[in-house]
Amino acid sequence: MQPHRQGAAALPVARRLSSVLLLAGFSTFAIFVPGMAQSAEAWHFTFGAAKPGYTTVDAGMAYDAKRGFGFEPGAEVRTVGYLAASKPFYFTADLPEGNYNVTVKLGARDTASNTTIKSELRRLMLENVSTVAGVIDTRTFTVNVRTPRIRAVPGVAAGVVDLKVPRETVSEARAWDRRLTLEINGSHPVIESIDIVPVTAPTIFLLGDSTVSDQPGEPYNSWGQMLPRFFKPGIAVANLAQSGETYRDSLSRRRLDKILSMMRPGDTVMMQFGHNDQKQIKDNKGGPFTTYKDEIRQHVEAIRRHGGIPVIISSMERRRFDNAGKPQETLTDYAAAACQSAEELGAAFIDLHAMSLPLYAALGVEGSKLAFAEPEPGKLDNTHHNAYGSYELAQAVVTGLRQAGVPAAQWIADGYGNFDPSHPDPVAKFAVPASPTFSNERPLGDEGNK
To answer: What pTM did the predictor assign?
Structure first.
């Protein structure tokens, strides 16, 4: 059966105009030239059973650029009237840059199911959705797909984001390619169909360092990767944070320009830097109450000129305790500078620094270790979090968003937005399944604070 999608006529031309990089371990990665036409597309997939208006996908359909969809290498799946697997796998569909509503029908008539879905680079969308035999549970989530291309808008020149090579072009390529990749996970994932349709939806853009950015493999994780789980469908999260970076890098590598080129009036930009900005003191290139505040101002003013809503976030603390078991503060000046900037500029402020301290205190000296990445046995990373730690911090950010009165808070998922960091979720009850990708490579930046 021919692929069923809308607006695909321009795709062959687009491919001929693209510059293509073949990346190890990933499908083709396309960077599109400025001015290239892009059309809206929609995909409708069914698995193993023909359905009018749908593309039937069989288990042996590996991703193929000509076809425009398929399973990524390593997928061990069954299509028996529905899609099932005994281990996590990836499914990819080509799409132009934009926001999309993804609707999945989970479950089947003859089997129970348990499905978790992450998008692009391990962004949590659906968490442990369980069904009993005979029940189909329909869920929708909103995702953002982007490329490095920066289109020209007033005040922003055309160009491309200065990606970090090879990090963003190899292990993190899924965050930038012209495709939507879904990680299908869970103890017994079962999917009847997947519908992907373009949508005009508000977007929450993220800027920040490694504690915000999409980390490519376990055990590392960030609150930015967990954030989508805590929002209803109808709003997308676009994470442009990157490991090792500062407000200054956001400007020089054109990450802010990329956001401004995609932004619609009323969109939200959440910004959290500080860990790596500290290096500027050591290198005699600035400080929290001088250059750091000035770079915050530049971001806030640019976002407002383009109709966006800036949200300044102070950095969470590192894991350090004194002899009495009290969390120590290493980022106080940067947290204070972020707060001052928000007050002076009249911008929304989330004090994640202040919320992280009671969180770590509640977990304790030993218990807090379970919130941080341990890439090798006995080698704890006291800056970067694992899935549990980032899940808790994401709830703190969502709560801060609501407390700050940011309009995007209206999309917070039911039951969330009232997180008390002094009473975190029990570690034993945390059950988000791990992704199949693993890396013991420490995220860039903050090398002096392991």
So the answer is: 0.91
